[in-house]
Amino acid sequence: MTIEVGQTVPAAKLSECVDFSAESGCPINPQAQDVSELVKGKTIVLFGVPGAFTPLCSEQHLPGFIALSDQIKAAGADEIWCMAVNDPFVMGAWGKQVNNEGKVRMMADGSAEFAKAMGLDRDMTAGGMGVRCYRFAMIIKDGVVSYIGVEGSGEFGKSKAETVLVELKK
């Protein structure tokens, strides 16, 4: 069952790398983050993508949230998170590659545990990608979902930054 508006996000851990090696520039020191603690008393915009470095995710989805991050935060979001079923090193490198510069937290759900707990996991093994998450966006207020938009295959509307900004302003 997919998480719905009015429900509390499940307890889970996501990981992120915010430090980079001086020699190689590679992400280092992944840190596990407790979702339940991070959402307390905050408004979080969380968007999920099927995979880091994939075309739509890299060309439109993540860049849209980076470009509108100031407006999204001005509309009430404390933080913006990008989540993918990738490891924290890949997520850190992806954020660096798109010049994220700390506007969006790059959160890894390496084993799809959070995606599965929310009912947003998607079996993409036939295409060689394993278990991933659906493309989605949600607004979480003090741990409770106040908006969720889940995309079908090939869709990109309910989860884009512009849509989330409109929802935040309601």
UniProtKB/TrEMBL annotation:
Keywords (A to Z) from UniProt: Antioxidant, Oxidoreductase, Peroxidase, Redox-active center
Family note: Belongs to the peroxiredoxin family. Prx5 subfamily.
Any one of the GO BP annotations: cell redox homeostasis
Pfam annotation, one family: Redoxin
One annotated Gene Ontology cellular component of this protein: cytoplasm
Protein's recorded name: Glutathione-dependent peroxiredoxin
EC number in record: 1.11.1.27
The UniProt record lists the keyword Aminoacyl-tRNA synthetase: no
Transmembrane regions: none
Organism classification: Bacteria, Pseudomonadati, Pseudomonadota, Gammaproteobacteria, Thiotrichales
InterPro entries: PRX5-like (IPR037944), Redoxin (IPR013740), Thioredoxin-like_sf (IPR036249), Thioredoxin_domain (IPR013766)
Domain of life: Bacteria
Keyword Amino-acid biosynthesis: no
Organism: Methylophaga aminisulfidivorans
Example GO molecular function: thioredoxin peroxidase activity
Major enzyme class: oxidoreductase
Known catalytic reactions: a hydroperoxide + 2 glutathione = an alcohol + glutathione disulfide + H2O
Function summary: Thiol-specific peroxidase that catalyzes the reduction of hydrogen peroxide and organic hydroperoxides to water and alcohols, respectively. Plays a role in cell protection against oxidative stress by detoxifying peroxides.
